[in-house]
Specification:
By secondary structure, the protein is mainly α. It has one domain. It is built from three helices and no strands.
Length: 95
Amino acid sequence: MGDIERMTIPMPAEMAAVVKSAVDAGDYASTSEVVRAALRDWKTKRALQIEELAALKADIDAGLADVAAGRVKDFDSARIVERGRKLLAARSPSV
C-alpha cells in the first residue's frame, strides 16, 4: 500500500453505524478497510462516469458537426416514438 496517511473523517451517525455493522458482521477486519473498499469502488465508478461523459461529449460534437455539414433530417416525432416502441418491445420479455 505504500505510505499510509491517517485521516479523521466526520460522517453522519447512520453511515458510521453501517460501517461498524459491516465490521461487526465480519465482512471487514476494520473500519479503515470498509472505507478503503468504498473509495476503491468510488474510484472505479468515477472513472466510468468520466469515460461516459467523454463519450457523450464526442457524440454531441459529432452531432454538431453533422448539423454544420447539413447532414440532418426533418424532425419526425412519430417516427422516433415508433422506433422507441420497437426497441422497448425487443427488450421486454414476452408474457
